[in-house]
Records
---
Amino acid sequence: MLEGHKEIEVPADVPVWDVDPYDPAVLADPLDYYAELRSKGPFAYIPKYSILTCGRYEETKEVFSDWERFVSSRGVGIQDFNLEEPWRPLSIVLEVDPPEHTRTRAVIERALSPRSVANQKETYSTAADKLIDGLLEKGTFEAMEELAETYPTTVFPEAVGLRETDRQRLVDYGEMVFNALGPNNELRRNAMAKGPEVVPWIMERCQREQLTLDGFGSTIYAASDTGEITEEEAGLLVRSLLSAGVDTTVTALGSAIWCLANNPDQFDLLKAKPDKARWAFEETMRFTSPVHSFYRTANVVTEVSGIKIAEGTKILCVLAAANRDENHWPEPDKFDIDRRPSQHLALGVGVHACVGQNVARAEGYAVLMSIAKKVESIELAGETVWRPNNSIRSLAHLPITFRGK
Ligand code: OVV
């Protein structure tokens, strides 16, 4: 066993690569690692963790889409749940395969449906306008804390229907969940140390009586009244919302501001046509890939692009590398809001593709639309600092100056 999974033999025709994808220096500045990964071929073998890794668009998409050969039920992190206990009760939507997945996914998909999210659009844009007005008054501010963290932790708990909320605990729980997918390194241990303080609070928020009657949470619990799921399952699905809905959108919003600050020509295009906000957010997701990687586990002996893959192989699918693949994207390293990159892999692909994507897009659209209408210029006002995480690529600090129109 190595990092909670079976050690595999080096497959034939796969280069051995002495790299540590979890080295904090790689996590903070990963573009060279992504490029080298793609240059290795369809897969590379990383002996330090005894894993395969892929980062070309085609193979990453194939592994990610094929839930029959590459399962999620053995965990989407480095641990194999067939061999080691997960740190928390399994997610009944993320860490499960069809047919079980189909039933729970249907419930959560209904709660987060386009119609359900459309009902909240007004709230999202009002909150965005208020936030951006306040930041324009300040002029210079810390965009991770005051914009990227503030916005989702304002609108999302209300959308879910939490009666009690706590920004820091929501962010800390997300950090635990995403760091937990990596090896047992310092990042994971530091995040996990917050568990005793954060986990009971999160679990309490998922209880029916802690939820309002008009949020995503109540729609999920309604499915337990008809017998589609049990009450206990409803609680776990609310936990999934709180696991996946905060850090991801915080990261994406921060990175969107970073992209616009670094590409004033693109911000000019957005200001000229604020309707492009949707595509500016989409291009941010392609360009920065908030979730940089997830695993799948080969559940059978199989083959991809002529490479033999052993049963039990953990495959690190580097979505962020696929989103920069020069064989798929023209000028992949250009941030281009007119690209309309609808096939990017930042939200995954296949039956497990992000079920909250309507919510994420609505939040991103509201914030970027408000900025496009109100802000004349976005400038970096100091040093940007990245926050290494085993599965998320986020900024920690982003000092920004907004000037108004
Ligand atoms: C990290 C993550 C992503 C998606 C779903 C979940 C967690 C979950 O807990 O279901």
---
Amino acid sequence: MKRKGLVFGLVISLIALLGLNIFAAKKETGRIIVGCDAAFPPFEYLDEETGELVGFDLDLMRAIGAELGMEVEIKNVSWDGIIPGLLSGNYNVIASGMTITDERKEVVNFSDPYINAGLVIVTRAGDDGIKGEQDLAGKRVAVQINSTGDLAATEMQQEKGIKIAEIKRFNHATDPFLELKNGAADAVVMDFPVAGAQMQASPGLYKIVGEPFTTEEYGFALRKSDTELLAKINQALVTLKANGTYDQIYRKYFGE
Ligand code: ARG
């Protein structure tokens, strides 16, 4: 009898140990590794004071992680190549102000949209010559490479017959603004909230021309095979919108 009890006890401990191991393994995969190009304030950027990667997308991703009981690790990667990096498994979510487009949907899955944005034309503050896309004829336009701003400028040039003199494509979204500031470009095509943040950071330098001329929605991008995590993220988004967390993060970066 006693012996049986001992064996029973051992078996139970073994199961408990195995169980713990399984639990630990689950915890390991319970990590969301996020890829972002952190030069896109206010959505993702480096906080110079704390050295931390912050921004609307990253706060939201961290809140999603907290909601799901998953750890969130952020990787700062280059925008051009951010989708290949996802596909090759360097991270499992792109949170990088990425507009949901049909073209991208062919290679990745997007979460439900988490914010709206649109493109604007930005000029130097004193420049009154550019009032809309037609006025970009003969001008040098700076964009971030492979962004929707790049696509829009390319479309103006190739499909709308607007004779843009040159489209200058840069790796970082902040570079086109430097180019504009230095007089090496005449206009920038950029996401409206990002243009707004650049204007705030350098008062008096830039001017936004009119209203956004596109309507875009940002989504988190995942590998097509990652349907389980996608569903969880969408579920967490619903919860965070309902419980006020989303609004809190929104106000932190965009005010009331
Ligand atoms: N919304 C634009 C796009 O999807 C630009 C995004 C750029 N994001 C970034 N973190 N640089 O193409």
---
Amino acid sequence: MCGIVAAICNKNNANVVPILLEGLKKLEYRGYDSAGIAVIANDDFSRIRSVGRVAKLEKQCQEQNLTSQIGIAHTRWATHGIPSENNAHPHISENICVVHNGIIENYEQIRQNLQNAGYVFQSETDTECIAHLISFYRQQKNLALLDAVFATCQDLIGAFAIAVIDKNFPEEIIVARQNSPLILGCGNDNEGNFAASDASALLQKTNKMIYLENGDIASLTANNIEIFAQNINSKLLENISHLRQIKISELSPAAVELGNFRHFMQKEIFEQPDALVNTLEIISGCQNVQPQIFGVNAKNILQNISKVLILACGTSAHAGLVARYWIESIAQIPCQVEIASEYRYRHSIADENQLIVAISQSGETADTLAAIKHAKSLGQHKTLAICNVAESAIIRECELKFLTRAGPEIGVASTKAFTTQLVALFLLTLVLAAAKNKNINFPKLLNDLRHLPVAINKVLGLETQIAEWANQFANKNNALFLGRGLHYPIALEGALKLKEISYIHAEAYPAGELKHGPLALVDANMPVVVVAPNDELLDKLKANLKEVEARGGELYVFADANADVKVSKNLHLIQLPEHYGELSPILHVIPLQLLAYYAALAKGTDVDKPRNLAKSVTVE
Ligand code: M6R
């Protein structure tokens, strides 16, 4: 959940400090409670660490005029030890300096052994034991830096992406990965070489990327990159550089810039029409949907499945909940959705004909990844990843894949990833329905899908009205979100958005459940947000609204234009376009995203980087 960057440049050429800081800024979404940088200058480390954002670190670097041709840097999301200067990375052990993203599960044992050997720890982190262990192998076992890192990696259990420098050897950076992402950037014109947790941090210098695999260790000098891995037979390191291709990143640097928007979340909400157009490009001009959009073997696999199990976390799990309604009602295949962190530890009934669908924006969510591995360990090998990051671990773990083309999502609150996931899941529903010979009106549904970007633009036009509502929310401590059927998951998503960025406590309920308990919470201080599409449950929903009104509750209703919901003293209404049928959840989530965004704005919270959270949850 942290971000790491490493850079080495030609001596007469450059200063890596601005490169490292720029990289950290791009990685701040991964963690932002503290940051640090270390470079080698005059045969010694110069290290600056501080609690807070990269901007603060940058100022300190400028004040101290930090420069060097080699360095490593880190932005942290605390796991072991509070956010403090001592716990911030890089960590130093004598000549060795390390940054780390991940969690070392056996760190207590390693720490104990190292303390027994006389090593003194300055922090509470698991990372410091990596620095001391490398130091131990360098000094006590006289190993070269590459071999010392390799030996250390053999001792570590858990997830790590590390970058290591040795102050006596300022011509090389060693990086290694196991279960945490790590990408190499090959500099242009011998300018140098780079590594980072994510390609967005490297685009400032290059679009030539090498995606390291688990178990890879690489040596970066200013002019060369060599990649090694353990040979299965000899157990020794072998050079496998020829097996790792350079890929040209299609990500444009502008895609990770804010442009004219105030926050990334706002930008990403407004990018949704384009994100959907891009995601739908795969079926452009088609009158039906071919299974092959999910992979070459999709036809065979999808024809023979008996049920679907969706595994995901957070917003991605909400997309799964919407899909459950679609898959059961349109394709008529049993579908279950399970929170990945629960499934991975539960004794479930496996079925080899069950399609396992993993949904993830980042493709790196530790629980989702572990849940897929768990499903496979139970003999369920029909796996499909719906994911926004092409080279991610989750994509690689699954046999079938569908890449949502939302573009980079930087704001911690997921928005455009959600709507593109829904589009992908609707396409999956259509393919499953066709595989099961269900009678569906493909041309109409595809037409509806293709019209969605225009319909979303209309909903985005409600921004000003929604911002006014949000101002009324800012002084509330709690909120209830209600929906029914297909739109209950949208209520869940609205509540999650509001709580994570505005810190207003919000709960979502299926509206019919209100009278079984939550109605007791309703009074004039409890705003009740209602998702009210004009579907077959509308009349029942209206009855639920009466229950709230009768108890003095204040209703904020998002209704379809033709839903005939009446404004009253306690019922505020914003009308969406006319009912959009099965795809209506994709429209109804947009106002809830805007409501959360403007409530957070009114409260003055850090919209893109809410407290205690990080974008990619790569730890358990
Ligand atoms: O990258 P993923 O989609 O796997 O992430 C899952 C959740 O961590 C994520 O959706 C989280 O709930 C968001 N912050 C919600 O806005």
---
Amino acid sequence: MDLIEATAETARQLVAAGKGILAADESSPTIKKRFDSIDVESTEENRRDYRQLLFTTEGIEEFISGVILFDETIRQKTDDGTPLPELLVRRGIIPGIKVDQGKIDLTFFPGEKITEGLDRLGERLEEYRSLGARFTKWRAVITIIGDTIPSPVCIEANAAALARFAALSQKAGLTPIVEPEVLMDGKHTIERCEEVTLAALDAVFSRLREHRVVLEGTLLKPNMVLPGKECPRQSGPEDVAAATLRTFRPVVPAAVGGIVFLSGGQSPEEATANLDALNRAAPQPWELSFSFGRALQQPVLAAWRGKAENADTAQQALYRRARLNSLARRGEYSPDMEKDS
Ligand code: 13P
């Protein structure tokens, strides 16, 4: 199998029926924020303990096809000295790696962001491959403020970076997860989110084509089309699913290896209900799966609180959320299931 075929094969495995991705690739500042919320100090040892807890949860391989790791995590080991990526592989879970180096201000465009990390990315990818990674992730951040932000320059610059990242990943035999995230911060309407998401996806797929990226070996990690968190008019799952699919149909090619949604600050229950509604809509040309960070981990962190004696309850919380999202991925979830313990 050549390297490009390998990227398509990995993409297929990542969106296998009933399975999705656990995003556990919080950067050091982000994991600190999550730990602060449960009064746990963000030390390297605590971060390792927490990730080890996630990855040793019995049975999650039924629902989790892959895990996205952070640079520090891909180098860490379990208590018995097994590298964390090797632990995942033994359990039939594919290790992936966040390769972007975070967002910075976009010069001359106040309020807008661009993602860093392209310099010497080719060399870093070779190292990540040798450490066990089979797929990669790059997150671009698009903010909505009023009618003028995002600017076309921000959308284009981020799409170009995503395409460079995707091409380099495929050259290294790694499946790129292309993540143009339109943030749900703010009071914008769902219609405004639809308009911006359409523009962002259109730019991304144009640039991917120009850069000769093979779509079958690429996964898209988009936001769902949602109203801003502070918008007075919120939307239910059917409306979110309809708006999201209406937005994707004209611009997301059927050839793409799959769609793995981010949760982006929705509650775990909302994210699952919306994913379920998306999968209940008539058959689509793409697999509609998940690559959730917060929507999978929030209840785990709340149960764990940094205490070894809470590990079992925390792992049960992860197993439960992963199972519910697996059902949602098949369109078989019901909010009533949230009542079962
Ligand atoms: P959330 O699901 O918490 O948005 O995280 C997904 C992710 O990987 C963001 O880059």
